[in-house]
Amino acid sequence: MVKKVCHGFPRSSTPIVNSVIGYAKEAVYPSYTDGDKPETALGNLIVDGQLFEANKEGKNVDFAMTNNGGIRSDLISNPTTDGRNEITWGSAQAVQPFGNFLQIVELKGSDILDVQNQQYDNESYYLQVAGLKYQYAPSPFDSTFHYRVTSMTTNNGQPFDLNKTYRVIINDFLYGGGDGFSAFKKGDMVDTLNGLDTDVFVEYIKDQNAEGKVIDPQTNNRRELVDSKTYLGQ
């Protein structure tokens, strides 16, 4: 009996893997990043989806962040004869295959600033961010960080408050200080999101499709390199 179930699983799962969950404007959205411009359209789509789904659940989240290392595949869609690009469940699942839990963490603004600066140490691990925009500049005399954040604002243009406590959605890997983001460990976990990160990504694409929207993420300068000698928090 067990043998039949195990042998039958790949065939029985095929309809799910190939099921269409939405449509994309482009056939491929790359997972890779340029070292000087680490923001990606696919990364923005992922964190936008996490922020959207969290607040759809009434979680009252301010920002979403994820690590580039967890984005393992391009989002690839299948062109159709009518000119559309179908996104399947399988292609969406492949983007974040690790299946991390999503946790809502309360962090002080100063700790969020530390997190952003930790992207620019010698390890060069980057974050994709939603709900937040910032500028950063070279810090040539800093032995720890090659760049530092100079200013931050929320997406609605509100000033970022270093003394305020914000609610941030991150995966459990980051909450444990993964990829050197030790500042995340200063936060207090107050809630979790239903489903794993890949489930939330699939659900977001489905929600966009239900509203008649075609997936077309962009890079929109959520991080901007500037020429400045004045750094936030100093």
UniProtKB/TrEMBL annotation:
The 5'-Nucleotidase C-terminal domain is annotated at: 20-185
**Any one cellular-component term (Gene Ontology):** outer membrane-bounded periplasmic space
Q: Mind listing the GO molecular function terms for this protein?
A: 5'-nucleotidase activity; UDP-sugar diphosphatase activity
On the tree of life, the source organism's domain of life is Bacteria
Q: What are the BP-aspect GO terms?
A: nucleotide catabolic process
Which source organism does the UniProt entry give?
Answer: Terrilactibacillus tamarindi
The identity of this protein, by name, is 5'-Nucleotidase C-terminal domain-containing protein
InterPro entries recorded: 5'-Nucleotdase_C (IPR008334), 5'-Nucleotdase_C_sf (IPR036907), 5_nucleotidase/apyrase (IPR006179)
Against Pfam families, the record matches this protein to: 5_nucleotid_C
Which lineage is the organism of this entry classified under, starting from the top rank?
A: Bacteria, Bacillati, Bacillota, Bacilli, Bacillales
